[in-house]
Amino acid sequence: MGIPESIIPLCAALILGCSKNDGLNDIQYKVTQRGGTERAFSGQYWDEKSDGDYVCVCCANPLFSSDTKYESGTGWPSYWQPIADGAVTLHSDRKLFRTRTEVRCGQCDAHLGHVFDDGPQPSGKRYCMNSAALSLIKR
Ligand SMILES: [Zn+2]
Fold first, then answer.
1. Which residues have C-beta under 5 Å from ligand 1, the single-atom ion?
2. Overall pTM surpassing 0.90 (yes/no)
3. Which domains, and CATH codes, for the chain?
4. pLDDT tens digits, residue range 50-74?
5. How far is the CA of 40 from the centre of ligand 1 (A)?
6. Which residues are known to be catalytic?
């Protein structure tokens, strides 16, 4: 899937998920392990335009391609489609009065963000991600 061998996953234990001891900083830990959300326009990638693959910051699982990234105006990196089937998993999230669909890493279960139905064609989906959950491997 084109991940350079130089990319070493931060986590030693992929299945068990990340801990701070695995090298995550505060915001990466809060987002991926506690389901937090970074402040809009605060992350590293909302305005990123480089070509490449966005991988999970915890386990380096490929998640999204820059080919499907678009400017949603929300202040979070947004994509209309994951890079492959099974790259992410979807979960019902009832935290905030209404049901949202949570997006997690398909490999290590890290929280990534949410998916909404107001995205562009062809999918109509908006995968609203946290920069802190992603790592961009530039082409
Ligand atoms: Zn992962």
1. 56, 58-59, 61, 105, 107-108, 110
2. no
3. 20-138 (2.170.150.20)
4. 999 999 999 999 999 999 999 999 9
5. 22
6. 128
